[in-house]
Design a protein that fits this description.
about 325 residues; two-stranded parallel ribbon; 12 strands
């Protein structure tokens, strides 16, 4: 495991304090929040088998505060598409809790890859396609903050008789609905203890078909969200181009041993449990992709011919 010095004084929202979060979980969550919000954190120290990042996360745009109108727009769409066991609590929409934007960035990244890059013929074209994503994901900004605030209002309906596995699936599916993305679990829940004690994650990933995947880690709880905190990442598995995306670092091109690379990343985070889902969108791709950079300007003019070639069939917010 990697041990990094974190400040343990990160504040927790009042509703979580009222829910009686155990001290050791509160400490772990404070470390997690410090890590995802630390713009000066050193690069991941693990070797990751010689794999290289295509570009790095560079921090957060200035004045990246929540925009109330954007959050409400996202909330309304999520609410209209929520799964039967899931609801979204509007009273928790404002203010944003500054607990990171991993789900907003990771799901947007994968939706953009499916829409823009997945049908490129060669590995080099797909690689260059991801590199061209840099203006959208090099820095966190208002769009992701506002969107994550809506995601964070998710709750599980009370007294649901369904299994925890079904609840977990409906939770992440209710967020993926924002992009018109369908998720199918490829494995049951695996705990960090199982992973560290020999669970064959490499074997599972080696046997997965080529495609696009979501990794959801969480610290389970008996509260309205059924979790104390969580982290979302994504990856693409392809015989000639695979990439793992963690919003805290950037897209990692995986040329050596995808299964072992994913295992090392999950152990590094150390969040108590995780699941993996296969992700697909319709023939026209995914929807609602982030369209702004730090300057709130599109990196390509949507009126230009080049822009339509680079970003086809995208529904902008």
């Amino acid at each position: 495991m990697i041990f990094t010095a974190f400040c343990f004084s990160a504040s927790l929202p009042a509703d979580e304090i009222d829910e009686g979060i155990p001290p050791e979980i509160a400490e772990a969550k404070a470390r997690y929040i410090e890590r995802v919000n630390d713009e000066t954190a050193p690069p991941q120290k693990r070797d990751l088998f010689g794999n290289q990042y295509l570009f790095y996360r560079e921090g957060t745009c200035p004045n990246s505060e929540q925009i109330e109108s954007q959050s409400k727009k996202v909330y309304n769409l999520l609410k209209s598409k929520q799964r039967p066991l899931i609801s979204f609590n509007k009273t928790k929409l404002i203010p944003f809790d500054n607990g990171g934007t991993c789900s907003a960035m990771a799901l947007d990244f994968l939706a953009r890859y499916i829409t823009v890059c997945s049908k490129k013929r060669s590995a080099e074209e797909r690689r260059e396609c991801v590199i061209n994503f840099q203006p959208f994901y090099a820095k966190n900004n208002k769009t992701f903050v506002s969107r994550q605030a809506a995601y964070n209002t998710i709750e599980v309906k009370a007294d649901t008789p369904q299994s925890e596995e079904e609840i977990k699936q409906q939770k992440i599916q209710s967020l993926a609905n924002y992009h018109g993305m369908h998720l199918t679990p490829v494995m049951g829940t695996v705990t960090m203890r199982q992973l560290e004690n020999g669970f064959d994650l490499k074997g599972v990933i080696d046997q997965l078909p080529e495609g696009t995947y979501v990794v959801r880690m969480l610290s389970p709880a008996n509260n309205a969200k059924r979790e104390y905190y969580g982290h979302t990442m994504t990856f693409v598995k392809n015989k000639d181009f695979s990439v793992y995306y963690d919003n805290s670092r950037g897209p990692l091109e995986v040329t050596e041993d995808l299964g072992e690379t994913v295992r090392e990343i999950l152990i590094d985070w150390g969040i108590p449990e995780f699941r993996i889902y296969h992700a697909t969108c319709g023939d026209r791709g995914c929807s609602n992709l982030k369209n702004d950079s730090c300057t709130m300007q599109r990196s390509l003019s949507l009126e230009s011919e080049d822009a339509h070639d680079a970003f086809p069939l995208i529904s902008w917010e």
